[in-house]
Amino acid sequence: MPVAAGIELTNHCNLRCPECPSGSGTMTRERGFLDIGLFRQVVSELEPYILWLNLYFQGEPMMHPEFFSFISIRGKYRKTVSTNGHFLTMENAEKLVLSDLAKLIVSLDGMDGETYKAYRTGGDFGKVSEGIKNVAKAKRKHKSSLNLEIQFLVNKKNEHQISDIRKFVREQDASLRLKSMQIINMDDIGEWMPSQNRFRRYKLINGAYTIRNSLPGRCARLWFNPVITWDGMVVPCCFDKNAEHVMGDLTKETFSEIWDGQKYNDFRKKLLSGRSAIEICGNCTSGLKNSIIIT
């Protein structure tokens, strides 16, 4: 059984980020919200085995009407939530730090309104930066051990602000993750790819961009970290954003039946025999050095 799992609370989002399947509108699967009864059923089966439960995949998890009911369900595992930061009011920040949430990841991809909105279409820099400050204040007030991590998606339009985001993060007593940017529309790669090579996910070969990853014939994700969509579909990993490789349906089968099933094992064998032949692996960072730099 896996040691970690991702569960999508919703694939709805309030932003329209151009290189995100949810925000760009390229996602073809149905939109919806996870049923809390299904969540309890799945977590009950996984709890004896998992160490980490990530309550996000596509979409904005805090848009779920029962978001705080999900994070109030306690277990032996540690929980992580990743958010775009638009719902971090002081009241919500207090609820988050008083829960048993282990880590809160907040995306902040610019240090002024114009730079931030270059990628976070429809976003509000002021609201997100204030929301981060709210969480930091609540942490200090309640002496919370919550790990507040700021994620900065490095691209051509914001790389000049790396020193600014480092200063801001230090002031909030948070950690910083500088992350290479994934491109889903290769026609736009010149618009986004940063000039600093260490932050580039792609390289130019014979006039075409390709991922720098050599795609070795192995990947731990298929044995350690599955993802479950809001409607109960089990997919191999977080790179299957459109659920093109459904391993099973949790509304009809148990997780262990799916995990040990023929379909999952066949997919694992396919990966071991030729990872480059699997489309979702083509943008994957597993095996790619420096795709994420934590400071």
Descriptive report:
The chain is α/β, with parallel strands linked by helices. It has eleven helices and twelve strands. It has helices at residues 21-24, 36-46, 67-72, 90-98, 113-119, 125-142, 162-171, 189-192, 221-224, 255-259, 262-273, and strands at 4-7, 52-54, 78-83, 101-107, 147-154, 175-180, 202-205, 208-211, 227-228, 233-235, 248-249, 292-294. Strands 11-10-9-1-2-3-4-5-6-12 form a ten-stranded mixed β-sheet. Helix 3 links the parallel strand 2 and strand 3 (78-83). It is globular, with a radius of gyration of 19 Å. It starts with a strand and ends with a strand.
Poorly predicted segments: none
**Helix-strand string:** EHHEHEHEHHEHEHEEHEEEHHE
Shape: globular
Write down how many β-strands occur, each being a DSSP E stretch of 2 or more residues: 12
What descriptive keywords fit this protein?
295 residues; alpha/beta; 10-stranded mixed β-sheet; two-stranded antiparallel sheet; 11 helices; 12 strands
Could you provide a short overview of the structure?
This protein is of the alpha/beta class and 295 residues long. The protein has helices spanning 21-24, 36-46, 67-72, 90-98, 113-119, 125-142, 162-171, 189-192, 221-224, 255-259, 262-273, and strands at 4-7, 52-54, 78-83, 101-107, 147-154, 175-180, 202-205, 208-211, 227-228, 233-235, 248-249, 292-294.
